[in-house]
Design a protein that fits this description.
Layout lengths: L2 H24 L3 E2 L2 E5 L2 E5 L6 E6 L6 E2 L15 H18 L3 E6 L4 E7 L8 H23 L3 H23 L8 H28 L9 H17 L8 H23 L4 H30 L8 H4 L1 H17 L8 H22 L6 H28 L6 H18 L2
Antiparallel strand pairs: 1-7, 2-3, 3-4, 4-5, 4-6, 6-7
């Protein structure tokens, strides 16, 4: 498979993930008002109307108790599978009722109320939905382009970390940004995908640190790492254990193996200052991102503590991780990738710039498609490419000397040697 095919594969997978997330999210039901939690109560409020405390939702298959659990953005922090399944069942019942275009609930005051359900539009998608897709795009592109530029076992494992993380993020982007309602089966499926790929991300990361920058031994650590990961995946889908939050424990255990492998790599480079400098950058990039996520998400969830930062925002630390490794490619040639790796990025970003600018211009009613495309090409040609050339010259290109300077320097050196010779 040549470079073009590998890049095409990366871009095709990215488009598939992003389009799937957009399709699922845009087809979720939207309510006229909004729901929020107030201590142990669930509140509904429409614009310009008084807030209503909800007692329970009306369903032909049985009433659904109104509780803040229904609003939870990340269900895999739930400590018991009983509560997890109750959440999914409640959303299934409410989802069926919402198909009629309305959802009824009984207020705490005993009055029956009706919530109107409408189709979701692109303007209804919240900012954190787009933010998570942006993070997933950056992670997938950086990991995928590294693999496409220099296929090897190390870059394949690095790209696999990006693939698992991308799938986990786009799955979470759908259910974490719902307005309120979501089909229970879809909710469960997406949550399991998110948890499973978080576990497999740790397996791929541990395997990468076993192989890079040097293989630590013949011990089948990679096979054991992925075997442990797939065991974790089985426990997620078949609900083996005490609760959904157990997935964080599996992720942390494998992540601890990655830390041990990283420490071993550091020990092996104790007499190699150049290799250690590159390894230091590599490890800082990895553990700055994963360490922050573990500290603010994995560990509190595993211990049953409240999360201080929403997961949708915390995903940004992974973008820092992959961006740091991208800078390491430039400075230390990580994975033995030459500077022309950035030429691939300039090609990708140029195409993305044309698409984004054209999309923005087409959305302007006064412009025709032809005029919008013309303006997009002009903007990219007059703004993007000059900036790209300046960046390349300033930060990437290596200064070269012309033939005249080379000859002049050579002649001066030869003459100096002749005069100094006895």
């Amino acid at each position: 498979m040549n470079l073009q095919l590998r890049l095409g594969l990366v871009l095709s997978l990215l488009v598939l993930f992003l389009s799937s997330a957009f399709y699922l999210s845009i087809n979720l039901p939207e309510t006229n008002g909004y729901f929020y939690a107030d201590e142990d109560s669930l509140i509904y409020q429409e614009q310009g109307q008084d807030a209503i405390a909800i007692s329970h939702f009306i369903s032909s298959a049985g009433d659904v108790e109104a509780e803040p659990l229904l609003l939870i953005p990340e269900p895999d922090i739930i400590e018991t599978f009983t509560d997890f399944n109750r959440l999914m069942y409640a959303h299934s019942l409410m989802g069926k009722e919402a198909q009629s275009g309305m959802l009824q609930f009984m207020g705490a005051d005993g009055e029956l109320n009706t919530v109107l359900i409408r189709d979701r539009h692109i303007v209804d998608l919240p900012w954190d939905f787009w933010f998570q897709l942006l993070v997933a795009t950056g992670v997938c592109l950086i990991g995928g382009v590294v693999w496409a530029a220099q296929p090897s076992k190390a870059t394949s494992l690095y790209a696999l970390t990006g693939l698992c993380l991308t799938i986990a993020i786009v799955a979470a982007a759908v259910y974490s940004t719902r307005s309120f309602l979501i089909d229970g089966k879809l909710f469960r499926y997406l949550s399991n995908i998110n948890s499973s790929n978080a576990i497999l991300f740790s397996s791929a990361l541990a395997s990468l640190l076993w192989y890079y920058p040097q293989r630590l031994g013949r011990f089948p650590a990679v096979y054991i790492s992925f075997a442990a990961g797939f065991v974790g995946v089985i426990t997620v889908f078949f609900q083996i254990g005490s609760g959904a939050s157990d997935s964080y424990i599996y992720t942390l255990l494998i992540y601890m193996a990655a830390i041990v492998f990283a420490a071993t790599q550091w020990f092996y480079t104790r007499h190699k200052p150049v290799e250690r400098a590159a390894l230091l950058w590599f490890l800082l990039a990895i553990f700055l991102g994963t360490g922050l996520f573990a500290g603010f998400q994995l560990i509190p969830a595993a211990l049953g503590m409240d999360l201080l930062i929403p997961q949708s925002v915390l995903f940004a630390v992974f973008l820092l991780m992959y961006a740091g490794i991208a800078l390491g490619l430039l400075r230390y040639r990580l994975f033995d990738i030459d500077r022309w790796w950035f030429e691939i990025w300039s090609w990708l970003l140029g195409g993305i710039a044309v698409i984004l600018v054209d999309f923005a211009l087409v959305s302007i009613p006064a412009l025709s498609n032809t005029a919008a495309l013309s303006l997009a090409l002009a903007a990219v040609g007059w703004i993007y490419f000059p900036l790209r050339q300046w960046f390349w010259t300033r930060f990437v290109s290596v200064p070269t000397r012309d033939l005249q300077n080379i000859l002049q320097s050579s002649i001066q050196t030869l003459c100096l040697r002749h005069w100094l010779s006895p």
